[in-house]
Amino acid sequence: MTRNETEIRAKIQDSLEALRDFTAKSQVQPEDFFKVARQATYMTALYWVLNEDVPEEVTKLAVPIAKKMGEAQAAQAKKAGN
Question: Does position 31 have pLDDT exceeding 70, yes or no?
Fold first, then answer.
């Protein structure tokens, strides 16, 4: 099934909102990163389908996501150590 550009852009917007929502969370679990990575990969593929570069806003979201991932991993490691 081929999607039209409007549908693709709606999917991109949904994925972007998911990434924004994730960065706004105060508590995350390591498993949450699988979901956010899937969203980011999916969105990147949709931009590829449109033959467009990924916007800077999207790439800038990687910094807070990576920071949250490090914090969640440290918290899990601390729990495991207790």
Answer: yes
* Tokens coding 64: 């807070």
Tokens of 10: 């709606």
Give whole-number Cα distances, 50 to 4, 6, 13, 16, in Å.
10, 11, 14, 16
Contact indicator for 36, 61 with CB cutoff of 8 Å: no
DSSP annotation of 50 reads T
- List, as one string, the DSSP characters of 23-63: HH-S---TTHHHHHHHHHHHHHHHHHHTT-PPPHHHHHTHH
Q: What are phi and psi of 41, to 5 degrees?
A: -65, -45
pLDDT tens, residue by residue, 49-58: 999 999 998 8
